[in-house]
Amino acid sequence: MAGIRWPPDESEVSQIGRQVASVDLISDDDRSVAADSWSIKSDYGSTLDDEQRHADASEALSVVSFRAASDYNSDKEEPDAEGVSSMLGFQSYWDSTYSDELANFREHGHAGEVWFGSDVMENVASWTKNLCNEFFPRHSPNYGDSMNCLQHEKELSGWSVLDVGTGNGLLLQELAKLGFSDLTGSDYSEGAIELARGLADRDGFSHIKFLVDDILDTKLDRKFQLVTDKGTLDAIGLHPDGALKKIMYWDSISSLVAPGGLLVSTT
Length: 267
What we know:
Domain Methyltransferase: 157-266
Oligomer: single chain
Number of strands: 7
GO molecular function: protein-lysine N-methyltransferase activity
GO cellular component, one term: cytoplasm
Structural class: alpha/beta
Radius of gyration: 19 Å
CATH topology of the domain at 87-136 and 152-265: Rossmann fold
Largest sheet: 7 strands, mixed
CATH superfamily of the domain at 87-136 and 152-265: Vaccinia Virus protein VP39
Strand content: 5-15%
Distance between the termini: 6 Å
Order of helices and strands: EHEHHHHEHEHEEHHE
Strand order of the largest sheet: 2-1-7-6-3-4-5
Protein name: Methyltransferase domain-containing protein
Shape: globular
CATH architecture of the domain at 87-136 and 152-265: 3-Layer(aba) Sandwich
Number of helices: 9
Organism: Genlisea aurea
């Protein structure tokens, strides 16, 4: 799992000379949260500099065997000779999976599968809040004043949060338990969103917003202070066109994280 802090807005960046140090990176070296703990220094520009990212994207695309543009919107099952693909990379797989899980929820009340397991999900939520606490004081006028702990918690709870590829939405429920309140979950599977809404209503988290949206072609026009991704990048990478789709993913994510905000990715 890794946390990446987005660079501040243009006015702040110009003051510090766009140094790489403007992006803070914290990895969980002491406690394995997923199968492996890892740090991101993105191949597409750790500072998310547009020119560098697009230059790297162009280089990557130059070695890709291009297919018809319409193919990238389909669940074609041609194997990729240079990479590992899986049914988990196709939307049709997840639509079928969440159709079954939605039926089980309606009949038996089951929440469905938790990607990486419930213990990992709880650790991700607590690790994420600790990461937010790490960065919050730097921007708070009350930093260093121990009498303002309650105000600290109140302001942190107001962070806008987006969970991409939210699935059943249980990670957002965990974040809600830790005090976050402005919570949104997106997923390209309508069944997943319907399941997430049902679980949130049942469990007393009806304030969490859920919507159908494809991270590779997002229609969201809002920026979030915290964006979380638990396994979505993994699934994208398992598509036969995973190399290209991961480039699309980083471009899309960069449009959703607010300046100075955080991206937490678990893989």
